[in-house]
Specification:
By secondary structure, the protein is mainly alpha-helical. The protein has three helices and no strands. The chain has a domain of about 55 residues.
Length: about 90
Amino acid sequence: MATSIKIDEELKTRIQHLARLRQRSAHWVMHEAIQQYVEREEARESFKQEAVASWTAYQETGRHLTGQEVRAWLSTWGTDAEAELPECHE
């Protein structure tokens, strides 16, 4: 699928300069930038959806862990006394 985008001259010059420094084509630089942007935004959207689902589950059930409980659990990571995830409660 061929797609074109319009960019101003300043950005075009910056892309071309970076491409020369990286010994890549301007197309490669733009493709890489777009790919990284899309991956970052997909991850952000996934995080948002997970947060919404968690909030919805909490509203429906009231089950949760406190911040203190989570910090205590996380403090065991990487130790000989690494604990299992605590059970959620109301």
